[in-house]
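re: ur question from earlier - yeah i can do the single chain one, its not a big deal. heres the input i used so u can compare w yours
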Amino acid sequence: MIRRGKGVPVGARNFEFKHRFWIFGAIFWLAFASYSIDHQNAGAALADWIAGLRHAQAGDAEYHVVFAIAGLICMAAAALRTWATAYLNPEVMVDKHLHTTRLVADGPYRHVRNPLYLGNIVLAVGFGLMASRAGFVLLVLGMVLFDYRLILREEAGIRASQGDGFRAYCAAVPRILPALLPRLPSGGAAADWSGGMLGEAFMWVLALSVVSFSITLNQTIYFVVLGLAFVVYAICYVVILKRRKAKEGGAAIQR
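and the output i got, formated as tokens:
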């Protein structure tokens, strides 16, 4: 574990990084399990509050608007992560090992050091409106705290590997709140958009589940699309592993 000062833990353990997908899943599960103690949906509560400002009762129109905003937020998260993965590559996304030998400073990485983790937090805000009020708070706070632990773990490893180059990058580019204008000149790296979409297809279908609910207000359709997201993830995971094996085989031949 990365430590600072008098042994206060600030970074995630290797176990947490290795099993980050399942920990993210556990955060989502706990958030939605909170319906057992808070039966009020967060999005519906927001729609009721908006209608209350007009001294009216919320109807379908308010619910459509609130969940449409939730869907747009989720799509923004998917777009941000796709942009980031297009410059990183999807193989890194599913790798259980920490990569510290390569510093990516192009695309969204010119605006923010951790666009993938920022995308997670943005997704939590949008998707959290499908949870209860307590679940929304739990999901957003849990995502922020765990992502921050992972960020500190990764940045400590990259700093140890890249030294002054990474320190200069950190001085120029903010950690999690993005700069509107790029803080670095383009390095000329080409985006692999097919790889970006492959790595983030799961996020897009998650966003689609919320969009489908905003249009239909039908929970059955929402859960069908949500289930499809995990099917898509499994398929993409297999494809990414095959891509990685093919690249490793090609690199071995070149040697």
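The chain has one domain: 15-250. not sure if urs matches, ping me
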